[in-house]
Design a protein that fits this description.
6 helices; mainly alpha; single chain; 174 residues; 61% helix
Length: 174
C-alpha cells in the first residue's frame, strides 16, 4: 500500500508532537520544570536559527552554529545548548526514528559528534548535607548568641532553635 505524500502541515504537526513528547518524557524522568524549560528554550533558539525541523540538522550545520553563531557565547551556554541538542536527538532516535524516516526519508542522526562537541563540562551543583556535628555546632552557636542578640529576627531565630530538641523534624507542640 502506497503512502500519501507528506504535506508541510503533516511535518509541522509531527514536529510539534515530537517536542511535546520530549517535554513529557523529561517530566516523566523527574526533571525539574526549570530544567525542561531551559532545554526547550535552547532547542527553540537552534530551530529559529536553522529554519527547518531539527531532525534535518547535520554535523556541518552544527559546525556552523557552534563555530559562528555561538563562537563568542559563554562556555556554559555552548555546553548547555549542545547537551540539549544531544538529549533531544537521543529522544528522537529512541522514540521517533522510524516515524521520521517514513515521513521524510531521513535517518535521524545527532549532529553533535566528537569533532564539534564543545569541550568542557558543567560542574554538577550538588548539595551535600551537613554532618550531625556541624548541625549541633550551628544550633549551639545560636543558643549561645541568644543572650547577646540585639535585633528581633536573629533573636527570634535563635529562640526557636533553642526550643527545638536536637534531631526533631517537627517543632515541639505547645
Amino acid at each position: 500500500m502506497a503512502r500519501a505524500p507528506t504535506t508541510p502541515e503533516d511535518l509541522e504537526a509531527l514536529e510539534t508532537d515530537v517536542l511535546a513528547g520530549f517535554v513529557l518524557a523529561r517530566a516523566a524522568a523527574g526533571l525539574a520544570d526549570g530544567t525542561i524549560a531551559a532545554d526547550v528554550v535552547h532547542l527553540e533558539q537552534v530551530r529559529a536559527w536553522f529554519g527547518r525541523p531539527l531532525w534535518e540538522m547535520e554535523p556541518r550545520d552544527a559546525d556552523s552554529y557552534f563555530g559562528k553563531v555561538l563562537r563568542t557565547a559563554a562556555k556554559g551556554t555552548r555546553l548547555a545548548r549542545s547537551q540539549a541538542i544531544r538529549t533531544f536527538f537521543l529522544f528522537l532516535e529512541l522514540r521517533h526514528e522510524v516515524e521520521i524516516h517514513q515521513m521524510t526519508g531521513r535517518v535521524v542522526e545527532c549532529p553533535i559528534d566528537e569533532m564539534n562537541r564543545p569541550r568542557g563540562h558543567q560542574q554538577a551543583k550538588l548539595r551535600i548535607s551537613p554532618s550531625a556535628e556541624q548541625v549541633t555546632r550551628l544550633f549551639t552557636g545560636w543558643r549561645e548568641e541568644l543572650s547577646s542578640c540585639r535585633k528581633f529576627a536573629p533573636t527570634a531565630r535563635n529562640y526557636t532553635a533553642c526550643r527545638r530538641p536536637p534531631g526533631r523534624s517537627q517543632p515541639p507542640s505547645t
